[in-house]
């Protein structure tokens, strides 16, 4: 069985400061991991994915995430937050076949001017 | 850009009525998924198709729910005798058979009065 924990339900940062959204996963096999973003009234957009290649993954809009097997973590970071980054972020764990997507509960990111 | 589309975007219905939602996946994608997302939660898997075959159903999918993908292209999700607890966002996603990344549509928001 797979599960995802997003340690913070809400993160608030000031514009121009770093962003850290935390994700821990549980999986009985080598997982694939994803971060999706959901803006209000918009669909889920893929930010980045890890599929057993490089452990540091770069995504769109300056986001990146590092897979740490020993810590079962896949935290999302960005060096400098923009107002447009305010949204809901979901960490997702999947099996190798992509059939079993398990979403975390989400972290709402607020960016203050 | 022909991404995943869903229709309608919003549906308001009275308890006990039947509703049907449509999803059009990205044209060459073999797999199609349905998820339900309630307020403040991450999406939860409902069911998925590989071409026209429905391969997996979640226990969340009660006997009032039925999904079809008759020609391996678009899919419909029907809810019979709707209940207030069915109020949620219903998301559709699609992927290629040999890829694990899922691409999401904008969702259909159902409100049951």
Largest sheet of chain B: 7 strands, mixed
Record field, number of beta strands of chain A: 12
Distance between the termini of chain A: 41 Å
Largest interface: A-B, 25 and 26 residues
Oligomer: heterodimer
Mean pLDDT of chain A: 92
Number of helices of chain A: 0
What portion of residues of chain B belong to β-strands? over 45%
- Assign the structural class of chain B, choosing from mainly alpha, mainly beta, alpha/beta, alpha+beta, or little secondary structure: mainly beta
Secondary-structure-based class of chain A equals mainly beta
Low-pLDDT residue intervals, each spanning 5 or more residues of chain B: none
Instruction: Give the total of beta strands of chain B.
Output: 11
Short characterization:
The complex is a heterodimer of chains A (113) and B (113). Chain A has 113 residues and is an all-beta fold. Chain A contains no helices and 12 strands.
List the helices and strands and how they pair.
The complex is a heterodimer of chains A (113) and B (113).
Chain A: E1 3-6, E2 10-14, E3 19-21, E4 23-26, E5 32-38, E6 44-50, E7 56-58, E8 64-68, E9 73-78, E10 87-94, E11 102-103, E12 107-112
Parallel strand pairs in A: 2-12
Antiparallel strand pairs in A: 1-4, 3-9, 5-6, 5-10, 7-8, 8-9, 10-11, 10-12
Chain B: E1 5-7, E2 10-13, E3 19-24, E4 31-37, E5 44-50, E6 53-57, E7 65-68, E8 75-79, E9 88-95, E10 103-104, E11 108-112
Parallel strand pairs in B: 2-11
Antiparallel strand pairs in B: 1-3, 3-8, 4-5, 4-9, 5-6, 7-8, 9-10, 9-11
């Amino acid at each position: 069985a797979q599960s995802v924990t997003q340690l913070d339900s809400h993160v608030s940062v000031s514009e121009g400061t770093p962003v850290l959204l935390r994700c821990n996963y549980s999986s009985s096999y080598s997982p694939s991991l994803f971060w999706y973003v959901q803006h209000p009234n918009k669909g889920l957009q893929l930010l980045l994915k890890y599929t057993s290649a490089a452990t540091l993954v770069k995504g769109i809009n300056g986001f990146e995430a590092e897979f740490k097997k020993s810590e079962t973590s896949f935290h999302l970071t960005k060096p400098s937050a923009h107002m447009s980054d305010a949204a809901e972020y979901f960490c997702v764990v999947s099996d190798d076949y992509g059939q079993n997507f398990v979403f975390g509960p989400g972290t709402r990111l607020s960016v203050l001017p | 850009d022909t991404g995943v589309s869903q229709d309608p975007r919003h549906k308001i219905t009275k308890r006990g009525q039947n509703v049907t939602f449509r999803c059009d996946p990205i044209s060459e994608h073999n797999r199609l998924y349905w998820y339900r997302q309630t307020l403040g939660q991450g999406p939860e898997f409902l069911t998925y198709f590989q071409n026209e075959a429905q391969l997996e159903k979640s226990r969340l999918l009660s006997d009032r729910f039925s999904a079809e993908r008759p020609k391996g292209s678009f899919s419909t999700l029907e809810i019979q005798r709707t209940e207030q607890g069915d109020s949620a966002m219903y998301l559709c996603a699609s992927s290629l058979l040999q890829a694990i990344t899922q691409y999401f549509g904008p969702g259909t928001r159902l409100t049951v009065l």
